[in-house]
Amino acid sequence: MSCDNTYIDYLLEEIQQEKQPVAFMEVCGTHTMAIAKSGIRNLLPVGFKLLSGPGCPVCVTSQGDIDAVIELVRQPRITLVTFGDMIRVPGTHSSLQEERSRGADIRIAYSPLDALEIARKNLDREVVFLGIGFETTAPAVGITVEQAAAEHLSNFSVFSLHKLVPPALEVIFSDPDIKVDGLICPGHVSAVIGIEPYSILAEKYHKPCVITGFETIDILEGLVMLLRQLHCNRAVAEIQYRRVVRNEGNKVAKETLKRVFKPIDARWRGLGLIPASGLELQDEYQEFDARSRFAIPYIEDIPIKGCACGDVLTGKITPHDCLLFGKACTPLRPVGPCMVSHEGACAAYYRYTPLKGRD
Ligand code: SF4
Q1: Ligand 1 centroid to 54 CA: how many Å?
Q2: What is the share, in percent, of the chain residues with pLDDT greater than 70?
Q3: How far is the CA of 329 from the centre of ligand 1 (A)?
Q4: Which residues, listed in sequence order, are joined to residue 212 by a DSSP beta bridge?
Q5: How far apart are the C-alpha atoms of 26 and 19, rounded to whole Å?
């Protein structure tokens, strides 16, 4: 314990010596929550910013896609199985929670395999799993689809809104309005994809990237690694989170992704349409694709009035800058997804730093 404290002091001292303005983005929602909870921001020198990025999968799901899922649950005999956060995300005119109160069969699960079990036990229902998440969660959905195919389970399908992180980071780095000097890269996603995608980005945009763990000591060490690269004018990808992330990632998970999914263009809240940044099922698994099975139309995005989630997700503003923060928008009555999700930046700020201070 005392060794850790000494090391934390040592890391903090190095960070606090920074005199130049610097802005690093934490890509992952779990980092956003960990940084808010730890109070690290209050210990940073003036001009040292930590910006939240597009790493909360619920938050980056576009408004049109949420409205499309709501269309789906209004169809007869549909049972939608989803992770908990999605149910409270407001669509344009409704939410899954409201649809459930009107009689839609919407169930919360902790694993896509739960949805498979529901399908086996309810052969008179069409059971749809809502696939939300990045490279971390998509492999488990892929395995579930393969299992459904092996069992010839004809009443199971997936509404895939899965997204890939590296294409979004490319947008962040190439947008001149987003001032980011380096990335704190997501630990969980990187455990699957490995270091290579970040090496490509770091070299192309000359910005350092450090894959970082989630303990306070990890985050501080990640920040020091980023700073040292900046001071030496280096820009490479490094792994701080060595106890979990290997250079090559998780080969089994990557192979599952390739077998079951193929990349498609996808809409991101705040970032717009990004080429090859989403995942849809491979042709051989098309019968398990809920969008085509139930002919769900493409629905245009209608921005939520007053909600600045798009700018929060790209680090252009902090949640405190949104006029609705803590007033019209709270975790009990969320206006946008960043206040709903347990990984959302607005929820993190509301919980740990409700008053504007050192953003
Ligand atoms: Fe959207 Fe609420 Fe966050 Fe404002 S505080 S950006 S309305 S989620």
Answers
A1: 14
A2: 98
A3: 6
A4: none
A5: 21
- Model confidence at 2: pLDDT above 60: no
In the reported structure, the alpha carbon of residue 345 is separated from the centroid of ligand 1 by a whole-number distance in angstroms of 9
Q: Is 90 in the pocket of ligand 1 (CB under 6 A)?
A: no
pLDDT per position as a tens digit, 28-51: 999 999 999 999 999 999 999 999
∠ CA(114), CA(119), CA(122), 5° rounding? 125
Asked if residue 335 has its Cβ within 6 Å of ligand 1, the reply is yes
- 1, HSE (Cβ side, Cα atoms, 13 Å): 0
Q: Is 4 exposed, middle or buried (0-12, 13-18, 19+ CB in 10 A)?
A: exposed
Nearest atom in ligand 1 to 346's CA = 3
CA 312 to centroid of ligand 1, rounded, Å = 8
Q: What are the pLDDT digits (tens) for 159-189?
A: 999 999 999 999 999 999 999 999 999 999 9
* Most ligand 1 atoms within 8 A of CB, residue of 63, 269, 346, 359 to mutate: 346
Tokens 């956060």 belong to residue? 85
Determine the 3-state secondary structure of 19 from DSSP.
coil
Are the CB atoms for 60 and 277 separated by under 8 Å?
no
pLDDT in the model for residue 84: 84
pTM of the model: 0.94
Minimum-distance ligand 1 atom for the alpha carbon of 306: 7
What's the order of all strands across the beta sheet hosting 48-52?
A: 48-52, 22-26, 182-185, 209-211, 237-239
Please give the DSSP secondary-structure letter assigned to residue 62. Answer: -
Q: Which of 286, 248, 249, 289 is nearest to 134 (CA)?
A: 249
